[in-house]
Design goal:
alpha/beta, 237 residues, two-stranded antiparallel sheet
Length: 237
């Protein structure tokens, strides 16, 4: 997939925004690796905390709105969204909505993207779990950043139904990384999603949902996708 000339230019700063997954945080291992690798190119990673203001009231609408506001506040320069799991769903819909604004997204990198979260929620949570969640109004989920269960209101489930990834138009170049052994996001779903979109390149990896064993491969492909030249020995040392 060719890299647009605007990403190769040296006059504008490239802004890379990382959107973490559900129950994660800006301090996740993938965010740290990405920040370190971008720093070698003199770039700073923007990593909003999608848990704010409170994890219990998290919704896809709130996260998409937060990303939209953050994009508007960035200085001039091309913007790239890197989304992990549920953060990838947020990135996809934020890019679709930003296309008609003065601050569009140039391209996307999606890691184990939960693109069917809005339309296939029962598969993610199970019918008994959803009914109990609906009845109680809240449900505990493990928040991996704090290593503790945290309460989340049922509004997350209801709101997610508004986000059909197949129904929105995203024309930006998109690179997807998906593990073949992912038990959270269905690899077959991701393959079907990518197959019908000429702007999407899919890299299938011998890995699970976390993709921790593939971080070096992910970075090399992302570096090329963004048109970043590998740093010289003098620059990296």
């Amino acid at each position: 997939m060719p890299v647009p000339p605007r990403l190769r230019g040296e006059t504008l700063t490239l802004h890379v925004c990382y959107l973490h997954g559900f129950g994660s945080s800006p301090q996740s291992s993938k965010a740290q690796v990405l920040a370190e690798r971008l720093a070698a190119h003199g770039l700073r990673l923007h990593c909003p905390d999608l848990n704010e203001p409170d994890f219990s009231t998290i919704t896809v609408s709130r996260m998409v709105g937060q990303v939209e506001r953050d994009l508007r506040e960035l200085p001039p320069g091309p913007a790239v969204l890197v989304g992990s799991s549920l953060g990838a769903l947020v990135a996809w819909h934020a890019a679709a909505r930003a296309a008609a604004t003065a601050r569009p997204v140039d391209r996307l990198v999606l890691l184990a993207p939960a693109l069917d979260f809005g339309t296939n929620r029962l598969r993610h949570f199970g019918e008994p779990g959803v009914e109990a969640w609906r009845r109680e109004g809240w449900r505990d989920f493990m928040h991996y950043a704090t290593a503790q269960p945290r309460r989340v209101w049922f509004e997350l489930y209801e709101d997610a139904g508004r986000f059909d990834s197949d129904a929105v138009e995203v024309s930006q170049p998109t690179l997807i990384f998906q593990g073949r052994h992912d038990t959270v996001v269905d690899p077959a779903m991701v393959q079907r999603f990518a197959a019908g979109r000429p702007n999407v390149t899919l890299r299938m990896l011998d890995d699970d949902h976390q993709l921790h064993a593939s971080l070096d491969t992910i970075w090399r492909d992302t570096e090329a996708f963004l048109g970043l030249a590998p740093p010289t020995r003098a620059e990296s040392g």
